[in-house]
Amino acid sequence: MSAATSDAGAAVLDRGSLDLPYTREDDHFIDGAWRPSTGSVRNVVVDPATEEEWGAVPNATAEDVDRAVAAARRALPGWAALAPSERAALMLRAADELERRAQPLAWTNSRENGSPLAETAGAAANAAGILRYFASLADHLETPDVRPFPNGGGETVVSWDPVGVCALIAPWNFPINLVVIKLAPALLAGCTVVVKPASPTPLSIRLVVDAVAAAGVPAGVVNLVTGSGAVGDTLVRHPQVAKVAFTGSTPVGRRIAAACGELLRPVTLELGGKSAGIVLPDVDVDELSRVLIRSCLRNTGQTCYISTRLLVPAQRYDEVLDAVTATVAAAPLGDPLDERTVFGPVATRAQYDTVLEYLAAGHAEGARATTGGSAADLGRGYYVRPTVFADVTPGMRVAREEIFGPVLSVLRYDDVDQAVDIANDTAFGLGGIVFSGDDERAYQVARRVSTGSIGLNFFASNHSAPFGGRGDSGLGVEYGLEGLHAYLSPQSVHRRVR
Ligand code: NDP
User: Fold this and answer.
1) At a CB cut-off of 8 Å and minimum separation 6, what does 87 contact?
2) In this predicted model, what pLDDT tens digit does every residue of 207-240 receive, in sequence order?
3) Ligand 1, closest atom to CA 474?
4) Which residues line ligand 1 (CB under 6 A)?
């Protein structure tokens, strides 16, 4: 790729030379093939670094959704009848196929949502890892599960059946990972699926569908329809959908939960967060600086579990604030297709407006920007200057609400009890980190924080451990055996032992 220089001096890479398999498309993936939409409405895909419209996809009609669900319904008995190890073998092949598509997938993803290549270059490998992890659980499903009655009156054979056709609805921030974390357990369980990606990111997911098809997963097992939130709603309420798995915002999650409640349809919701990073007085500031951006501002701050509230002891506040400010100020902001970029643009015009509104709220409420604090002028694109707000108090909007942009709020506390109280004074309960030089002390504090996951001096999701939110952060879990069971329905057969 060649580079040109914008007025502001940031490199803008030439997009014309990228070899992208999908740009302007007219079809959905239904019953094993790309099939034209029955409607004529198209939604555009905009590059947030350049504001150019570079792609388009069809907005599915109710008929498209119906065809996709019908294909999934037809494929269900055959797919469910395979042994888990047979399904796992196809998943392993899909993982290899996906890794073969890593490069175009990364470019497409970065052009869709502005995630730096440093993030998207690993998306295929990470998704392949998820497929391989769930494939490794085939043994778990094939091991007989026989449970004696506690009173000795007989025994029960517990079998696990697929729940049926699943609707998988994903957001735009990690469009591959957040589909595959639903797809992989669904496939192993024997479910068939219809995927609805977010409107800003409808193209990169096509490479996942291609990988699954190339691996030999039968027609109808995986279907993809693109379109707006209304398409998602049609899918959620479709009479032949048996389960919904959703990642996205809390307001939309509530609407989906209400629909599923009415329909008595199982639903998994992975929603927003406002996690706290509790810095203990014995923190190693160099170590904190090393992991800061990944822990608190990953993916230009557009990551659900990151610790966007940093709680710092009064006696070390100035020292930690200086280190945090220097780290954020030094991280390159620029074209997501430049491998050196740490902060890209935010994903959409709407998100850009939202983040600027939060910056204005922070200034108005008395927070002090030690770096950033405004839009960034790179000539074009939805760029916001990565921002550290100091002197934030727990009641401010920037301390309470999910911003989903490159904004870190730094709060002060006097003792650890107060830090734990501030951390827990939120409607959310998703992630968090305790930063300390002493792992045992950090662990004891972590156990007092009410969130589904929390890390000691770092945060990462572990494919084999449950990940989910409490309160407004969601319902149910993904990852791990627990994540697999979200796609299974038990049948207990009781028998006398003769
Ligand atoms: P949204 O909730 O706006 O959208 C998520 C998905 O739902 C999109 O595909 C969207 O389609 C679709 N959708 C919108 N309305 C409906 C509806 N009524 N019925 C069914 N589907 C609908 O979230 P964003 O895409 O803006 O993603 C950002 C949010 O996701 C953040 O709040 C973040 O915290 C959360 N998130 C949570 C994670 C977690 O694991 N807890 C991980 C990552 C993100 P469309 O795009 O067409 O509107």
Assistant:
1) 79, 135, 138, 187, 188, 190
2) 999 999 999 999 999 999 999 999 999 999 999 9
3) 41
4) 169-173, 178, 196, 198-199, 228-229, 232-233, 236, 247-249, 252, 255-256, 270-273, 304, 402, 404, 430, 469, 474
